[in-house]
What does this fold into?
Amino acid sequence: MKKKNKSNKPHKKETFPHFRWYRKSKHPALITGEHSEDEYDYRKVTHDSKDGRHSNDKLEPNPNPKDDKPMYIVRRKRHDKKKYFGKRLAWKYPKK
It folds into this structure.
């Protein structure tokens, strides 16, 4: 039996990867999957080519149409509770 949400409708299956606003850092994050039922796996989004001494992955073209600077994704995966992420952003992750 499928789980239902508060409005008694079946849950939609989420597609990954996608971008969401991360409320703790007040910056967007790339959601890569579900860590558990109430947590997302994510990677930080930045404009810097390095995170400390570690190189970041460059995304071309930038998924944010309003931003002309290159976007970089930090390689390290993190996870946090879903309640700390906002609504899904309309940005599209570029296909390779």
Q: What stands out?
A: The chain is about 0% helix and 45% strand. The chain has a mean pLDDT of 90.
